[in-house]
Amino acid sequence: MDIAIDKVRALIVEARRLEVKEGDTDPDSGSNAIDDGQTDVLTSSTMDDGVEREFRGMIAGMNEDERADVLALMYVGRGDFEADEWSEALELAKERDSSSGHLVNYLIGTPNFADLLDEGFTAIGDSFEDTGENPAPDPDDTMQKV
Fold this sequence. Notes:
Radius of gyration: 17 Å
Strand content: under 5%
Shape: globular
Number of helices: 6
Helix content: 40-55%
């Protein structure tokens, strides 16, 4: 993989934060947060939402290869590919439009995408153990190419 291990982990954490958001509970609320007991704090993610902005910013800060890795991780986590089929998953991910805006919308629209990323990441890490390779990061904190 071309993406740093810490970057994948941070992306999964942000994805989980984003997934806990609920739909609008009070869409026509005119009250302030103090008066309504902070009921709108965990509601609907919008472009004004700091959690979604952070997640979008993380994806936007990635290069094309890193975004393809994220998409391929989701394919593996979803079961479209096995860990030993990483090169095929990555090839498909590179063929797809993985521009930052498209990828964010695709991920957010995929149910349980944080779990899928995590499962794909775990499967890829397990594949290193099966081959006897060391999944530890290089000095620049990236994984060896699969």
